[in-house]
Target: Alpha beta-hydrolase
Amino acid sequence: MAKSEPPTSRAPRPRWALHVQAQFWRVLMGIGMMLHRMASPRPPKPSFTRTVPTTVSPIKGEFKLQFYVPEDYSLQKRMREKRFPVVVNFHGGGFTLGQATDDARWCATVVREVGAVVVSVDYRRAPEYAFPTAVEDGVDAILYLAEHAESLLIDIERVAVSGFSSGGNMSLTVPLRLQGEVVPEPADAETPFGMSPAPGSTDNIPQKALSRGRTLVNVRRELRLKAIVAWYPSTDYTVTREQRRMTCVRKDQELPAVFTQLFDESYLSPPTMDMSNPYLSPGRAPDAMMAGLPEDVILFTCEWDMLLAEGERLRDRLRELGKNVVYTMVPGVPHGWDKAPNPLRPTPGVQAHYLSACKELRRVFHEELPEGAIERDLEEDEDDEVEVASGSGSGPSRLSHTFGRSSHTFGRTSMSHTSNSHSRSRRRSVVN
Model:
């Protein structure tokens, strides 16, 4: 493939300057996420933590997994009567900021509504660890869970991945990279960019990975990625930041350049790297790799987001390859809208979208609604206006959910779940 231009034309700053700036924004983001978690109902803290030594990345080290488990997890561990499906989550922050507990509200919702164990990954971040370390840590996280499935009481035949923003990118790139480790594909399959062994081959896999307690062959046989839940992901770094910004309909709602420059300079190192690498730009992955993704992809985008256009292109491409893409464009909101630092109340509309994603996860996991879950797809707020329209054909019901203006945000928001309507002027759209 021909090399593409970097996402920004700005000359890269020294790495030490990126380190200083990243540390500064990590502190401020930590305060913001603390305020976000203060809103009632407060999300739970992780149930327990595991430290994972790295094996896939040539840069050795370790990272943590934060576990959120159902109420009956301890009882089931004693009884050994069932195993739980598992959702592996990747936080956002441009591969530079953020931590695994940022998505505690999402994790808690999945635990309650799906009855799954949720594992949020504290992958190593840039600029300390540039591309592709985060993706390789994501692969290591899934391999670790597969190896320790029995002791963790998880069912590795029912695994989904989720992620937000850069974590949404990882929810796509980690399964692509995982193909080179565990997915049983033909041994002569093409290996892109020389970054992983050909799927189905053990060539170039670290000996430590091959000598683990659970052999690679057994992991291949048992591990099943059932679904991807990607929230406003970055999918195509061959598109420059300037080009991305040109597609955004609300310039005042764009992610500020101070952040995007930090993210790109920190993670995309060296800046001359090939931006079409599928482990960076999953929307550019070859058809053969894309075909190996899970059959079910639940994709959320935001109307006032510079990443909307590439998210729609990814949706179309996945559908052309025969994937079942459940797509939602949330009108009237910017990138990261569900993480507003308002300590008084959660952002209106977020719970509704989290619940709709959980409904899809229950479907792919073949799970019934757990006791104590919210049976409705949409939870009404005191000031919310809810419309429900009948679906047509064999698809799910068509829903439209319009929320009033909140104290901190973004105008009116509504639920859109459509494959062929791209109108950005509507504040109500159809679910299909």
